[in-house]
Structure formats: structure tokens, C-alpha cells
Design a protein that fits this description.
Layout lengths: L8 E5 L4 H12 L3 E6 L2 H13 L3 E6 L7 H13 L4 E4 L14 H32 L5 E6 L12 H21 L4 E8 L15 H10 L5 H12 L9 E4 L6
Helix pairs in contact: 1-2, 1-7, 3-4, 4-5
The structure holds NADPH dihydro-nicotinamide-adenine-dinucleotide phosphate (NDP).
NADPH dihydro-nicotinamide-adenine-dinucleotide phosphate (NDP) binds next to α1.
Length: about 250
């Protein structure tokens, strides 16, 4: 297999399902050696098996990136094993919707811990390696892609803390982009609308049903549609940076 990401190493967080799994497959099909990280080992092993079957290269790391030190250890293991890190897709996330009055503090903390704090830890650990990869890598450029959301551009009732996390990571991404532009580390965010994944399954009963009913009532995006957007971002020529991609289902208002 040969492709535009030959000789590069990519990390995709939250790759055991949905957008992360589809993205890992897309990057591997383009020649990247892909490290897939999440907690569910069985899902990761199945994904790695599929990528190998398709002729790609992949390794699985089962890790809870919210656990102290684990995000940093993940990045160091990758660089120790593979010698480099060219692409990071910050994708792991959780969306626990519901009225703020009824929410538990634990739900809010879970969203902040994963969508923000763990993402910062992965990013902080990865940045020096991305700068090095842009400097000496096969493409002369490295990529940091954050999976934000339409919820990072438009706030809505029952989504306050999810909005907080996604507005936050979009802003973080843009500020970082400016800092790293001259290093040829491209920092961009992709902002999906409704995608058919397991994301809504974690919403508490009583709220989940309404979200699921809405998802079932429209023609949603597939995980592969967002993987396609990420693939587009990371395969541009060295002088082209896609800073933000907002991708909604056609019928989503
Ligand atoms: P999924 O629930 O399918 O994927 C979430 C991924 O995050 C899973 O692989 C999960 O794996 C992983 N994850 C959860 N907790 C942890 C943890 N503590 N450590 C490591 N990995 C973890 O949903 P999506 O694919 O939809 O979500 C991916 C991203 O897309 C999220 O950031 C989400 O906010 C964003 N998004 C999704 C939209 C949608 O409509 N689906 C719309 C807009 C944005 P595991 O449980 O094995 O750890």
C-alpha cells in the first residue's frame, strides 16, 4: 500500500468506535502507521485486524486518557516505538446532554475531563514531536486536528457544558494554529453536525430518548463522512492549511 501519508505516524484518540474508527481506517489507507487509542481493547483489536487485512499498519493502545499521566505515557510510548509522530487527531469525546438543573456534577466533570483536560494533555505531550516531524518528516508538515462540533459554534439549551467544552477546544485550536503556523504544524478543527455513532448512547435515560428520536428522524452523517473531512485536511499540500471544516447533514438546520 502506498499513499500520501507514507512514512508518517498518526495517533487517533477515541478510535474504538464512530468517527475515530473511521478516521483511523482512512489514514491507514493513505499509508500512515496509525495508533488507535481508547479504553475498549476488543474494539481496538478488531479495528487493527481490519486495517491489517486491508494492507495497512496499525497498533492498539487501550488507555483511559483522563487518568493522570496516561495521555502523556501514550504519546511517549508511540514515539519510543515508532520514532516519530506526524499527525494527531484529538477525537475522543463524550456528550452528556440534559437540563442543567437535573444534571449531576459528575456528568459535567466527565465532559470537561475528557473533551478538554485529556485533549490538552495529549496535545501538550504531542506538540514537540509534531514540531520535530514537520521539521524532518517526509512531508515537511505535521497535523493536529481537533474534532469539535457544531456545538462549538452554536450554544443551545440542554447542552451547556458540552457547548462549553466544544467552544473551548475550537478557540484553543485557533490560538494554537497561530502559534505553530511558522513551524509548519497545521492546527485545525472539524465541526460535525449529527453523525450516526454511539455518542448519544451515553446520555442519561429520560433525555436520551428525545435526542435519539431526533437523530432517527433525519438523514444523519456517517462516521466515514467526517473521516473523509479529516483525511482531506491532513492530505493537503504543505502550503495549504484547512483551519476549520463545518460539516452538517444536508437537512440539519
Ligand atoms: P463515539 O461514542 O462512537 O466515540 C467516542 C470515542 O471516545 C470512543 O472510541 C470511546 O472509546 C472514546 N473514549 C471515551 N472515553 C474515553 C477515555 N476516557 N479515554 C479514551 N477514549 C475514550 O462517538 P463519536 O464518534 O460520535 O465521537 C467522536 C467525537 O466526535 C467526539 O469528540 C464528539 O464530541 C464529536 N462529535 C460527534 C458528533 C455526533 O453527532 N456523533 C457531532 C459532533 C461532534 P472507549 O469507550 O472504548 O474508551
Amino acid at each position: 500500500m502506498s499513499g500520501r501519508l507514507d512514512g508518517t505516524v498518526a495517533l487517533v484518540t477515541g478510535a474504538s468506535s464512530g468517527i475515530g474508527a473511521a478516521t483511523a481506517q482512512a489514514l491507514a489507507a493513505e499509508g500512515a502507521r496509525v495508533v488507535v487509542a481508547a479504553r475498549r481493547r476488543d474494539r481496538l483489536d478488531a479495528l487493527v485486524g481490519q486495517i491489517h487485512e486491508d494492507g495497512g499498519r496499525a497498533d492498539a493502545f487501550d488507555v483511559d486518557i483522563t487518568a493522570p499521566g496516561h495521555a502523556e505515557a501514550l504519546v511517549e510510548r508511540i514515539v519510543d516505538d515508532a520514532g516519530r509522530l506526524d499527525t494527531v487527531v484529538n477525537n475522543a469525546g463524550v456528550m452528556l446532554l440534559g437540563p442543567a438543573l437535573d444534571a449531576s456534577a459528575e456528568e459535567w466533570e466527565r465532559m470537561v475531563d475528557l473533551n478538554v483536560t485529556a485533549l490538552l494533555r495529549v496535545t501538550h505531550a504531542a506538540l514537540p514531536h509534531l514540531v520535530a516531524a514537520a521539521d524532518d518528516g517526509p512531508r515537511g508538515v505535521a497535523d493536529l486536528v481537533t474534532v469539535s462540533s457544531v456545538a462549538g459554534r452554536r450554544a443551545a439549551a440542554n447542552s451547556a457544558v458540552y457547548n462549553l467544552t466544544k467552544f473551548g477546544v475550537t478557540a484553543f485550536s485557533e490560538a494554537l494554529r497561530q502559534e505553530l503556523a511558522e513551524s509548519h504544524v497545521r492546527v485545525g478543527s472539524v465541526e460535525p453536525g449529527a453523525v450516526d455513532t454511539e455518542l448519544a448512547h451515553h446520555i442519561r435515560p429520560g433525555v436520551r430518548e428525545d435526542t435519539q428520536a431526533w437523530l432517527d428522524s433525519i438523514e444523519t452523517l456517517k462516521a466515514e463522512d467526517i473521516a473523509d473531512a479529516i483525511h482531506y485536511m491532513v492530505t493537503r499540500a504543505r502550503h495549504v492549511a484547512i483551519n476549520e471544516l463545518l460539516v452538517r447533514p444536508t437537512v440539519q438546520k
